[in-house]
Write a structure and sequence with these properties.
By secondary structure, the protein is mainly alpha-helical. It has a domain at 2-78. Helix content is 70%, strand content 0%. It contains five helices and no strands. It has helices at 2-8, 12-31, 37-48, 52-59, 68-108. Helix 2 packs across helix 3, helix 2 (12-31) packs across helix 4 and helix 3 (37-48) crosses helix 4 (52-59). The longest helix is centred in the last third of the chain and has 41 residues, at 68-108.
Amino acid sequence: MKRALARTHLSAESVIRDAASLIDDVVTDIRNRGFTREQAFTQAATELGIPLRRAKKLAYGEIHKIAADEYRTIQRRFARHLDAEAKHLTSRMEAVKQRRQNLDAIKNGPTGLELDATENRRPSP
């Protein structure tokens, strides 16, 4: 690993911090979809190709060594996660835009309904 790190000018500590940060980012993305922390860790570990215990220990700063191959695997799988997340968010954004356009069409277009503002008023005492 030291040879691989020397080529990239990363210290072992910075690699571990980066791996922990990537795990935390995946967990956060999954939690934002409504999953519990435990569920998010389980899914993140699966997505990143590492055991659940390893993911948790890395995220909580309890790991002090990481193999270069494991780090590269986490990076590659994180890139895949980002691609999937971008696709999900793009799809969500398009759905929100469509909903907004539908709302504008109803608000601005003929609906066949005539709303009378006086119908919903309370009678004066």
